């Protein structure tokens, strides 16, 4: 029985606190990617006025685009409206000429190629621009003495390959719009005209995981055909329409960073992440899956803007018997997208629930975060007793 007593002491000692996780980014005077990560440095009785949003904003770089509403040079009206891109399907009509008229696909080099005519530049241009050049080309090639009636209309908008980088959660080249494989949307083709929303800038940002909370939306860069355009997208969070231009194959989008966490960007919008997928666990003992703890697909997917306490509630770590369930703790594992350094934050759930300044230490959940909860001390002691009981039975059977 001496062995059992020694083992009992070891197991009970393991119930003692193991200390808070150490982090490289939360040294004294620092608080990591968001101020809500910082350690709680005052008691509940000494809780002061909320200051995490102010701490986050203090390190922000100035807006590259200046004050909101400032007209930014480099944004041309040529970006607005529908623009042709490679592989778009267009219908061309030239008066009553049935030989030259017909349906054409914008070629890989971005030109409209028609019989008996030199290629006409189409990439990034409007249909009216192509109509004007086509009229001039018909006269220059002496196929007409006077300019005929010309009509160029988009029949089907092709997909576009666009590169997105900078302060987005998943920077990569994205494919926007179009239909999969070699399918044809015949219904749309039979009706002239086409919607371009699937190729808009907002669609590209969503396809790249959405903008991060450190993004500088005042000066989003769009590079096209060697030219740089600067767009102010802050209107989407100000209740106004944003500059949602149509993108073309070959465009490059770059979202700069203010090098700080902006609380007001942590809400749903046309350019925010569509939701947050979170890895979760509240298992008392290791298991093959989370199904027995009701942790499934619906729990892992949360609205953008969800905070730590909301995730803990989703994880079934709050409530129950106060005698046995109180004084649990929750652990949040996140990663600083700027420095690419991971961080582990542990909070006492009951203390957080009862703090007047809980928002100061209630981090926002970011895409890819992990959340786990630890049982209360009473639950841990009960688990030790269960293990000791099993060991005691084994010892008796061996004697």
Radius of gyration: 30 Å
Helix fraction, binned, reads: 10-25%
Count of individual beta strands: 16
Q: Number of folding domains?
A: 3
Strand order of the largest sheet: 7-6-10-8-9
Mean pLDDT: 80
Ranges where pLDDT stays below 50 over 5 or more residues in a row are 7-14, 378-388
Strand proportion: 15-25%
Query: If helices are DSSP runs of H or I spanning 4 or more residues, what is the number of helices?
Result: 10
Order of helical and strand elements: HHEEEEHEEEHHEEEEEHEHHEEHEH
- Which structural class is indicated by helix and strand composition? alpha+beta
How many angstroms does the end-to-end distance come to?
11 Å
Strand count, sense and closure of the main sheet? 5 strands, mixed
Shape: elongated
Describe this entry's structure for a reader.
The protein is built from ten helices and 16 strands. With 399 residues, the chain is of the alpha+beta class. The protein folds into three domains: 2-59 and 274-383, no CATH class; 89-156, wza like fold (2-Layer Sandwich), CATH 3.30.1950; 162-175 and 198-259, Outer membrane lipoprotein wza domain like (Outer membrane lipoprotein wza fold like). The strands form five sheets. Strands 7-6-10-8-9 form a five-stranded mixed β-sheet, with helices on one face. A four-stranded mixed β-sheet has the order 12-16-14-15. Helix 1 packs antiparallel against helix 10 (377-398). The chain starts with a helix and ends with a helix.
């Amino acid at each position: 029985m001496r062995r059992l007593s020694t083992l009992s002491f070891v197991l009970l000692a393991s119930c003692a606190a193991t200390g808070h996780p150490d982090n490289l980014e939360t040294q004294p005077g620092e608080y990591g990617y968001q101020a809500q990560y910082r350690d709680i440095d005052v008691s509940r009785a000494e809780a002061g006025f909320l200051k995490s949003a102010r701490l986050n904003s203090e390190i922000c770089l100035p807006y590259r685009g200046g004050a909101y509403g400032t007209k930014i040079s480099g944004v041309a009206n040529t970006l607005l409206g529908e623009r042709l891109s490679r592989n778009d399907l267009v219908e061309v009509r030239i008066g009553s000429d049935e030989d030259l008229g017909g349906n054409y696909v914008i070629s890989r080099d971005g030109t409209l190629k028609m019989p008996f005519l030199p290629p006409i530049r189409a990439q990034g241009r409007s249909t009216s621009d192509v109509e004007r050049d086509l009229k001039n080309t018909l006269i220059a090639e002496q196929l007409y003495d006077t300019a005929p009636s010309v009509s160029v209309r988009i029949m089907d908008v092709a997909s576009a390959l666009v590169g997105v980088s900078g302060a987005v959660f998943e920077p990569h080249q994205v494919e926007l719009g179009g239909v999969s494989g070699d399918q044809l949307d015949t219904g749309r083709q039979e009706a002239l005209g086409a919607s371009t929303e699937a190729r808009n800038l907002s669609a590209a940002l969503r396809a790249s995981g959405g903008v991060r909370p450190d993004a500088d939306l005042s000066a989003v860069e769009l590079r096209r055909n060697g030219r740089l355009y600067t767009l102010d997208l802050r209107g989407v969070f100000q209740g106004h329409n944003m500059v949602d231009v149509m993108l073309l194959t070959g465009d490059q989008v770059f979202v700069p960073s203010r090098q700080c966490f902006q609380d007001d960007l942590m809400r749903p919008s046309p350019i925010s992440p569509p939701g947050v997928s979170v890895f979760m666990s509240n298992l008392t003992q290791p298991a093959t899956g989370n199904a027995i703890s009701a942790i499934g697909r619906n729990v892992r997917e949360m609205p953008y803007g969800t905070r730590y306490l909301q995730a803990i509630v989703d994880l079934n770590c709050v409530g129950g018997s106060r005698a046995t369930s109180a004084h649990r703790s929750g652990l949040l594992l996140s990663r600083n997208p700027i420095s690419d350094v991971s961080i582990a934050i542990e909070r006492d759930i009951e203390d957080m629930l009862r703090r007047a300044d809980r928002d100061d230490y209630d981090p926002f959940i970011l895409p890819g975060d992990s959340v786990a909860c630890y049982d209360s001390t009473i639950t841990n002691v009960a688990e030790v007793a269960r293990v000791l009981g099993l060991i005691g039975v084994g010892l008796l059977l061996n004697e």
